[in-house]
Fold these 2 entries.
Entry 1:
Amino acid sequence: MKKVLALVTTLIMAFTLIGCGGNGGSKTKTESKADVAAPNVSNQVKPDSVKTGKILIAYFSKTGNTKSVAQEIQKNVGGDLFEIKTTNTYPEEYQAATEQAKTEKNNKFRPQLATQVADFASYDVIFVGYPIWWGTMPMGVFSFLEQNNFAGKTVIPFCTHGGSGLGDSVSEIKKTLPQANVLSGLAVRGSEAGKAQTEIANWLKNIGMAK
Ligand SMILES: Cc1cc2nc3c(=O)[nH]c(=O)nc-3n(C[C@H](O)[C@H](O)[C@H](O)COP(=O)(O)O)c2cc1C
């Protein structure tokens, strides 16, 4: 009888141990899954992080300054570069260009766009770059903002200028895109555009976009 009891006790202990081992194993697996998933989840919910998502760097540039800043941004954050072009052109000569731009601004003219972003909806973060013309963006940039759906997207303005900084451009962007999250903009003096690597890198770090 004693032997039978001992055998039964041994069998119960053995099953209990196997049972624990099984549960322990699956628990460990679940925990490790959670551990792997944790960093992604925390990235997604981090409120000030705009790093996640697909990046577009859209810019308008007549003489190349803004283009050079756009290219530098791409070097730092990756993403796709896109040049905003209009079907109308501007005179080479500075004075004549300013006259045309002034007339367009006064008439709230919206130039036709010559280029379109492929699959605009797929982008989450959109840098928008432009030279300052008469204290704001060239009218073609307004066309670009008005003709694409920016709802829910993060917009990051940057400009080059001859002395007036961002001017009214950021407030105009906010007014034009009330459903977008518009971050602080960067203003680079046109004459400094080719040597602004440190300024650009620091700005990207400050707004949480540096890699
Ligand atoms: C039509 C026109 C208007 C401009 N208006 C301003 C202005 O209001 N304030 C300013 O600081 N610079 C002004 N500029 C200078 C440009 O913003 C500056 O040269 C810029 O870096 C040019 O950029 P881009 O080479 O990308 O075209 C103007 C330039 C042009 C051609």
Entry 2:
Amino acid sequence: MAAKSPEPLKSTAELPRVVRAKGSYLWDATGKAYIDGSGGPAVYCLGHANDEVNAAVAAQMSDIAHAYRYNFTTDALEELTEIIRAQCGGTLREMVYVTSGSEAVESCLKIALQYHTANGQKSRRKFISRQRSWHGNTLGALGLSGFAERTAAYEGAFIPSIKLSPANAYRPVAGADAASVGAICAAELEAAILREGPETIAAFVFEPVVGAAGGCVPAPDGYAKLVREICTKYGVLMISDEVMCGAGRTGTWRALAYDGVEPDIMSVAKGLAAGYVPLGAAICTTAVWEVIRAKDGAFGTGHTFTGHTAACAAGVAVQKIIAREGLLAKVAANGDRLKGWMADALAGVEAIGDIRGRGHFICAELVADRATKAPFDASRQLHLKVRAQAMENGLICYPVGGNVDGVNGDIVILSPPYNCTDAELAEIVDKCATSIRQVLRAEGLA
Ligand SMILES: Cc1ncc(COP(=O)(O)O)c(C=O)c1O
């Protein structure tokens, strides 16, 4: 199916002009308030204008904003590294800092390639990823993404990759059901490795909870453990893309910790410094690092702004607040409550096919037919209409299209700040359900 052109970005002239924000709310130049039901694109995990984070960044800026990585280390960088090590647990202890999620994924890919080269297996150059995934906008990350709407214009220029079926319990691959989809998708990975030749495969890259491309799709039960076993068996590195679902978004600091699995390499970004300053990281195990260290002495990948000092200071402040306020436990406990509230608020709406997700990362999927799970035709642009209606109603949420086949499908993601109050969460759910109902009614679908 031909992909439609990427979702049009509105000209800035058409957008409301935001002038101020505090906590879970933003205000535009007309004085209109918006509640941030998605933390932007699942970024602002502590809400806006947090005094403690701002003070930490300001203090760092007045000492030194950016110390270049070839000349210096800093307290902020070293402290953040220790925090990340502690939160990751296990052997995920070495990292490269970057300034976006795409760079984090790109760095994961390069660490994998450097590892195999250092390990005398330079033939391992291909990557395996999945359909209905999003890994970012740099060429490497984009090429691994299964998101036709966003990749179509660049096809032909990507690094070699093999795309497997999505592992989705609500939309299991043909011949599978919710209980068997994990094992069947894992078997598809093993078959692909054997077909291509294990000696050609560098890594398998996946989101343990799929974000924008699928709509908060958790790994089916048992899937991640099987993937871990298969990757280990064939010397293929397991890369967990936790840019969106990591840093506590789904209730554990590492999303894959929920599945009891340690990847070889992982990315993290959005929630790491909560959007106060752009920051991400690619993190690898000591086993991967030791191979690289023994041969090359250092990671080959990195950027001018790697380990940007003010960004690291923001990360330290954000992570200290998350730990001190016990926000991971709160987020974990809120997941089922949020899904329950959404189900109640949308009760009787035939077009709601599924409500799923974990922690502060939940999603409602719209379907034209509950029994067949057929999506609405993309030409209806339902997700765009929900976004517009929600903005009208003073709610920022994250509706996306294309989750079913890259073109059709409508999902509405809620990813509120971890420190939202219950009253704020209730307002978010209420406004989201109201917006969905209004759009469906206006379209003659309810
Ligand atoms: C899972 C995942 N990986 C990578 C990226 C790319 O991150 P960024 O937009 O910060 O470059 C995103 C962004 O949404 C993402 O959700």
